[in-house]
Amino acid sequence: VKSKDIRERLLNTVSNIRKGNRLKREILSLQKEVKKKYSYENTIVGKSPATIKIYDLIDKATRTNISVAITGETGTGKELVAKAIHYNSPRARKPFVTVNMGAIPPDLIESELFGHEKGAFTDARERRIGKFEEANEGTIFLDEIGEMDLHLQTKLLRVLQEKEVTRIGSNKSIKLDVRVVAATNRNLIQEVKEGRFR
Predict the structure, then answer these.
(1) How far is it, in rounded angstroms, from Cα 32 to Cα 99?
(2) Which of 29, 133, 143, 148 has its C-alpha lying 20 to 30 A from 20's C-alpha?
(3) Considering the entire predicted model, what is its pTM?
(4) Which residues are CB-neighbours of 188 under 8 A, at least 6 positions away?
């Protein structure tokens, strides 16, 4: 349809297409940089047999979709391993969401992980999606998982089994496709034997 502003609209459309294409190229370039940055050969330093074994385990984890538990002393690079797994997997272009379980007060963890509906509790002034929803189609990294309360472990176990969350104050389940990578400095096998971890 001919109109007086057709030329202006056409120029704006072409300009927006060019901007969109430029942004797509920038995003692809940044994604390549992130992948290179978190290539496990670049982030984990060492050539010892133990380090090479870690490379092999990371490589296996990147080719599967299983949940992963990373254990080790504080400061040994558990988060670097988690990022290497995510950014070298097919989920690399999807979100990587980190939650430090030891840094969140126990009464807020459930809302932080699973979200809540408006009015679900006194301070719930608006709907909030949880970290699991935020990480949908990507990876959620649960750091210091050994610090989690047994009651919340039960709820988390249900999320892992059913692959769905229910926000606090809602009856509706939300299906998820999230890979879980957890880390702790505790000996989880010993924690399970002593009844402190599920």
Answers:
(1) 25
(2) 133
(3) 0.76
(4) 69, 71, 146, 197
